[in-house]
Amino acid sequence: MRDPRIDRAIGVCKKMVAAFSSSWKKKKALADAQEQLKLPQHKLITESPTRWGSRQRMIERFLEQEKAIRHVLTADKKHRHLVPTWQDVEVLEAVSKVLAVKSDDTELTKKIKQTILEYLNTKYSEDCVEELLSLASTLDPRFKNRYNNDGRIKTIETAVTAELLAMVTEEDSPTPGPSTAAQATTVEPEAGDASEPAKKTKKSFGSYFKKPQEFRGESLHIAIEKEIQSYLMIPEVDSDVNPLDWWKTQEINFPRLGKLAKKYLCIPASSSPSERAFSTGGNIVTCHRAALKPDAVDRLVFLSHNLKRM
């Protein structure tokens, strides 16, 4: 959304945060002002284009520390022009309230929400995208069918059943190996050639009790449907729970659904993780380390991302 009021307010906010981040004296003065005004001892947050929601967090932190920031900048003649006006503060408050649903929204907040809603409707209007989101939501134990229309629930369950059947059938089908390839290339003897009699295949005692293929397929279909219904009957988990961690512990109860959940829930919601990986790779492969092999770069990027979380 392009609005001159928002552009000006956010520009002032970014310049003000940059002034504090580049000066240790201002950081110390801000900490003293926070202590004097009894505000939380929090640092200011800088917006990053590759960080999802960083602008929202920057604005929220500014509004939290507005009194301390105004106290420090007012006493500094060089940066006094960065003190935000009451109009800028009002615009930033409207932007901060965008994600919260309230009945007393201002006209600017309503306009921002409407613009975001129109963008999302355009972005996710394709049928394939809607089907993907519906499947991912159903396999998320925090939501399941909460956000799916009643008319689409049966369709989604049918799609999940069909995909699970295809997945199980693909896993059960034998992969071609050396023995099967040799059998495929073996030349069968002609009908008139009786030099080698056909060998009889031996049958085990258990082979007489095997069910026909169509009955096994029917029972598999029923088992999958029962597994889906059992999963949907479980109460939804807390919204703070990591769905992948939940499936890791519950996969023993829902073995087929667990594999399908990993397939859909591992899709990143944005390009931020890949952008961070690219940035890490750029910091590792420099002009002084341009001879690294791809395997070594992969391992270094992996260690860089995972050692930070330990």
Task: Find the structural class using helix and strand composition.
Answer: mainly alpha
Oligomer: single chain
The count of strands amounts to: 0
Radius of gyration: 31 Å
End-to-end separation in angstroms reads 39 Å
Supply the number of structural domains.
3
Question: How would you describe this structure in keywords?
Answer:
single chain, 310 residues, 3 domains, 0% strand
Helices and strands in order, then pairings?
Layout: H1 4-21, H2 24-37, H3 54-64, H4 66-74, H5 86-96, H6 107-123, H7 127-138, H8 150-172, H9 178-185, H10 213-233, H11 243-250, H12 255-265, H13 272-284, H14 294-307
Descriptive notes:
The protein folds into three domains: 4-100, no CATH class; 124-171 and 211-267, no CATH class; 272-307, no CATH class. It has helices at residues 4-21, 24-37, 54-64, 66-74, 86-96, 107-123, 127-138, 150-172, 178-185, 213-233, 243-250, 255-265, 272-284, 294-307. Helix 3 packs across helix 5, helix 11 (243-250) runs antiparallel to helix 12 and helix 13 (272-284) crosses helix 14 (294-307). By secondary structure, it is an all-alpha fold. The protein is built from 14 helices and no strands. The two termini are 39 Å apart.
